[in-house]
Amino acid sequence: MKYQRIKGTADILPSETGKWLYLEEIIRNVMARFNYKEIRVPVFETTELFARGIGEGTDIVNKEMYTFTDMGGRSITLRPEATASVVRCFIEESLGKKAPLTKVYYIGPMFRQEKPQKGRQRQFYQFGAEALGSADPRIDAENIAVSVQVLRDCGINQFEVALNSVATPPLRAKHRERLLEFVRPIASQLPEVDREKIDRNPLRLFDSKLELTQQLLQGAPLLEQFYDDDVRRDFDIVKETLTRLGIPYAVDPRLVRGLDYYTRTAFEIRSSLLGAQDALSGGGRYDLLVEELGGDPTPAVGFAAGMERTLLAMEAVGQSDYGEKSLDVFVIAESEPERKQALLLTKQLRDGGKTVDLDYLGRSQKAQMKEAARQNARFVLFVFTDDIPGEMFQFKNLSTGEQQKLSIDEILRPIA
Ligand code: HAM
């Protein structure tokens, strides 16, 4: 084969788009119920935006971005996530001045040069929701509730909400100091991949999948030991609100996110329905990002979820009915005058709102019948030369086998 898709990308085939549309409809419906409005931001931005936004020390910025120089000599990056872009737009369009609270959602492709595996691609789709303008921890819970509601509406109930508070930068700095005191003496025993985290971001050691690292971290100081009253109170309100909203969660004091912008609430929704890549969604509060990117100080919270993973989880629970509509009518005609007539009838039916198709491959009546069945058409309409427009036509219900003579008006009625 001369041309192949690039590793880590996927074609979403016509036979698969039905389930994507189904998921997108659920997402849009949930977002409307929670009053988040859609925002569409570009798929590429200046590299600087992501480097500053996501953080210079993160894997995303260090290793995973698709970055190129455009004709103007600018460094451009395909978005690895959309929060930085939403914040850039929020500032550039002064959205904070237009409304006290901005609640937006997005659906679209993201790009990360990660090692592809099941549930992990280099171009993948996310949907996400961001609320900018409120510091109320109850909106953190609402934001988590949005993510949970989409899963529930998809029929996915097997998931856990892992919750943490990553506090504030000054508290993290205190913790980091103590953590380094703990880790430095055991640095030489740490596996090499984790050893390099010590200088970059020692908190990410907690994120390690390696057993040895986790063992060595036993007894390490946890961030929660450094919470102040304010952080603790906000975290308590998030937990209490989740309980009130009927959302079970588990506090995971070792939860660290792969992006630097989080403050206070951080969460991940994981599912045992998935393989190694078990995170369905993740997010949290990012109170300093708007300011960091040049805007007025604006507290904010958000999440994003992986759509391929959501679809994998839906399949794992046996979802197979994506409400796909098959053809209403397949119009069958054989001779030249019949085919002309069929075209006209097809137009009338389509104008009347039906989904209709006909043969363009010069096939026999029998082959056309087969095609109608293959396409799961509900009805076939036989056109014969002696039929006169506006009069009666042979009409067969493919599920009951019942055959009747009906006028176009009548055809438009019974299958409405
Ligand atoms: P994230 O945790 O990097 O957060 O990504 C969110 C979700 O996107 C993951 O839980 C996963 O389901 C999916 N995902 C990430 N990488 C891949 C990949 N390579 N292939 C397939 N799916 C993937 C963010 O992106 C933040 N912007 C979330 C956020 C919004 N925080 C605040 N607002």
> What fraction of residues sit in β-strands?
15-25%
What integer value in Å does the Rg equal? Answer: 28 Å
Decide which structural class fits the backbone: alpha+beta
Count all strands and give the number. 16
User: What is the CATH C-level name of the largest domain?
Assistant: Alpha Beta
**Strand order within the widest beta sheet:** 1-5-6-11-10-9-7-8
Annotated CATH homologous superfamily of the largest domain = Bira Bifunctional Protein, Domain 2
Helix count from the secondary structure assignment: 16
What is the fold named in CATH at topology level of the largest domain?
Answer: BirA Bifunctional Protein, domain 2
Major sheet attributes? 8 strands, mixed
Molecules bound to protein? histidyl-adenosine monophosphate
Intertermini distance: 46 Å
CATH architecture of the largest domain: 2-Layer Sandwich
Structurally, how many domains make up the residues?
2
Low-confidence stretches: none
How confident overall, as mean pLDDT?
A: 94
- Which geometry do the CA atoms define? elongated
Fraction of residues in helices? 25-40%
